[in-house]
Specification:
mainly alpha
């Protein structure tokens, strides 16, 4: 894992690797947010 990260940094550069890491973390957070929002909408639709 560490070797892969070092290879990526040397190939494309540190800022690109950091950006990719942050975007993947942000995507997971957005997926969780979307799921929770869908659950909230379903709950609100069930109530009279």
């Amino acid at each position: 894992m560490e070797n892969t990260i070092l290879t990526a940094i040397s190939t494309v550069g540190f800022p690109i690797v950091v950006t990719f890491y942050l975007l993947t973390r942000f995507q997971r957070s957005m997926d969780n947010f979307t799921e929770q929002l869908a659950n909230l909408v379903k709950e609100l639709q069930r109530r009279p």
